[in-house]
Amino acid sequence: MSGFLSSSIARKVAMALSALFLMIFLLQHFIINFLSVINPNTFNEVSHFMGTNWLVQGIFQPILIFGVIFHFIMGFVLEIRNRSARQIKYAKNNGNANSTWMSRNMIYSGLVILAFLILHFIDFWIPEINTKYIQGDMSGMLAEGEGFRYFEELQHKFVSPLRVGAYVVAFIFLALHLLHGFQSAFQSMGITSWRQKYFQNIAKGYSILIPAGFIFIALFHHFNH
Q1: pLDDT (tens digit, 9 = 90+) per residue, 52-89?
Q2: Which of 13, 35, 155, 193 could form a disulfide bond with 43, CB atoms 3.0-4.6 angstroms apart?
Q3: What angle (nearest 5°) sits at the alpha carbon of residue 187, between those of residues 95 and 117?
Q4: Which residues are paired to 141 by β-bridges?
Q5: How many CB atoms sit inside 10 A of residue 157's CB?
Q6: pTM of the model
């Protein structure tokens, strides 16, 4: 595996594949969270299933965590190597004229997203682990014993305007990150000609609509708690 990743092309392909894997998870995560806007009871039931199903918790969740770690580490490695190469290239050419701002600053959008993920883990994942495995409450029921706790916990997190603001900023950066990331992924995987244009249109829609959807969810719960 280390020999495979020693190739520059292999690293870019691995980065692209890990990104596409995370995009599938992000879409699934959005669909579940959007249920909190449409039907709180359905959101509670789906959240309870995802939080207690052994397949999701024992297999998919560790794979997801590995995918996130791998993607960020690989991203930082590629960025460091690219910056080293640019120092030589930009001495001969105008770098600002040959590349977009986003392509030159993917590491910064990545750091913002990483900071958001840490906040998101503090808000939801760590309390969930504490409730299930330290307090021993695997039922997901409210203290009063009426219904599941997931919807109330979600709404409670979006009371603070500072937290909502942090979520909005993070998802704006995610949209920018995705817009450039998809283009890089298509190039790394050799998707060209008419296929590239077709997939780019889908990617642009995804890159804008999914982050905008998450922003809508945060604002909806902030103003309707």
Answers
A1: 899 998 899 899 999 999 988 888 888 787 777 666 55
A2: 35
A3: 80
A4: 148
A5: 20
A6: 0.83
